[in-house]
Amino acid sequence: MKKEEQTGIPRRMFLHGIGTAGVVMGVAGLTSRACAADVPRDSGGKVIPGFEKSGKTAPADGKGWRSVSNRKVRVGIAGYGLCRFGAQFFFDKHPNVEVVAVTDLDPGRCAGLAKACQCDKTYPSCEEMIKDDKIEAVFIATDAPSHARLAVEALKHGKHAASAVPAVFGPNAEKDAEMLLKAVKTSGRKYMLFETSAFHSDCYALRQQYQAGALGKLIYSEGEYYHYKDRTLGSYNPKTGKIDGNGWRRGLPPMWYPTHSTAYYVSISGGRLTEVSCLGMPSIVDHLKPANNSYQNPFGTEVALFKTSEGGMSRMAVGWDMPIAHGEKGRVYGQKLGYEPKVNRTRPPLPPGVSGGGHGGSHGYLMNDFIESILLDRKPVVDVGDALNMTIAGVVAHRSALNGGKWMKVPQYEL
Question: Cβ(196)–Cβ(360) under 8 Å?
Answer without folding.
Answer: yes
